[in-house]
């Protein structure tokens, strides 16, 4: 068991490094995270850096063996950290955040198991299979964040998981062509086949006749999960509600842009202009106070 007072004096340097990395690498995420009280903001940055490190291990260049080796190194560093021997200041910050906000160690291990699925990126036969993947790479992240936001109870957990699914589904649509070009296909095969959409055509930037309809089905599924937002905010302290609400506001804005013009994802990365992103994030944050 890691106790906050036992962590290395490098914890402040670790938190500073995590916040700097988050600010540079995840602009959408940083918009929301900066709305948290300082102690919670830096803890969420430490968790974000762990999640990013895990993703980068499997998404980076190199052979499958290289990527598996990198992921194994992250897993080993995690276990050292949980045993009270963090290998560098950013891991020290994660140890401190874990102890202060009672984040279950099993969630970190579940995430590593989830991203390991991308070491062998075979297709998902059904929505149920994709949902299980979304739980491992996004639902558990929602549960980590919930501890930092101060939410408790099964209803809060269920809502946090669903928001994680919504964000992941939005990312899948946004990155559809890029993933297809890397031989990754996240749309369930049974649905892709029903609409006559193939990975090869998407990779080539070609919209087959059923493409728009398939994206519409996927977008509606994501909207259903975004609807968990008010249920989540109502179960959080008012001081932490703006962070997840701003994230939902921004990412839902991206989803709606894709839903309005599905074939835009075949041409490039769909996003929001900075002013629009800020407006949506702040509006959603303000509305969360009345949940």
Detailed description of the structure:
The chain is mostly helical. It contains 15 helices and no strands. The longest helix is centred in the middle third of the chain and has 23 residues, at 127-149. The model is unreliable at 1-8 (pLDDT under 50).
Spell out the key features of this protein.
mainly alpha, 0% strand, globular, disordered N terminus
Topology record:
Blueprint lengths: L10 H15 L1 H7 L4 H22 L4 H19 L6 H12 L4 H12 L10 H23 L4 H21 L1 H6 L7 H7 L3 H5 L7 H16 L2 H5 L8 H19 L13 H15 L3
Helix pairs in contact: 1-3, 1-5, 2-14, 3-4, 3-5, 3-6, 3-7, 4-5, 4-6, 6-7, 7-8, 8-12, 8-14, 12-14, 14-15
Computed Rg: 19 Å
Query: What's the β-strand tally?
Result: 0
Overall spatial form: globular
**Which structural class fits the helix and strand makeup?**
mainly alpha
State the gist of this model:
By secondary structure, the chain is mainly alpha-helical.
